[in-house]
Amino acid sequence: MREAGRVVAEMHAAIRAAIGPGVSLAELDLIGRSVLADNAATSNFLGYHGYPAVICASVNEVVVHGIPNDRALEEGDIISIDCGAIVDGWHGDAAFTAGVGAIDAVSADLIGVAEASLSAAIAVMQPGAHLSDIGHAVFSVVEPTGFGTVREYTGHGIGRAMHEEPSVPNFGRPGRGPVLEPGNVLAIEPMVTTGSPLTSTLDDGWTVVTVDGGRAAHAEHSVAITETGPQILTLPGDRPTIVEAE
Ligand code: MF3
Ligand code: CO
Hints:
This protein is of the alpha+beta class. It has helices at about 1-20, 25-40, 105-125, 130-140; strands spanning about 55-60, 60-65, 80-85, 90-100, 150, 155, 165-170, 185-190, 190-195, 200, 210, 215-220, 220-225, 230.
């Protein structure tokens, strides 16, 4: 799973570097495909329930599952990129949100809060913690900001399949559910909105948008519980274990 995670991190880095005004979503998908090919890895997104691409590219009011098309990015847009990889049958899955050129302050805050809520969630993923501590940590960061926390989509276990039990909500009371044990791997993925957290799905059957047209940001890592703390698998390089909670 470490190798799959490393490939996902490499996809993120290559796509992040290409994001800019005038670049199309389909071009970003091609970059994802080439990183997969360079690493002899395959995509867990392509063909998933018929999904046609190796990345989800979700712009502005699109929360998740945007299908890459010929839409060109414009200065001021925000875009979330969600992608995964399979290596030797093991899966990785992660997402980030980035601005295109200069973005407004609310959008920058939104991205920062999504990232901060993911970091707070990862920090509580110590062995012995309860599953619901994760969602509680996300919600505790997002709610005081006035941004919305999407409840209709969750994180998930990940391993030999992209989506395994349990699902990991981004809200809830702490101290509930299974105890986290070394060897568990979970994909944690808060989705944060500027307005209403409610979503609807477009006629393409995939694209999830905010009901009110407000912007959304998404941040995700695949995280392993180890004896000494959570370890983020979808980062490049040495991947330090997070020993202390915040
Ligand atoms: N990887 C997404 C998630 O974070 C699911 C994408 S479904 C796909 O769980 F069909 F778009 F691949
Ligand atoms: Co996921």
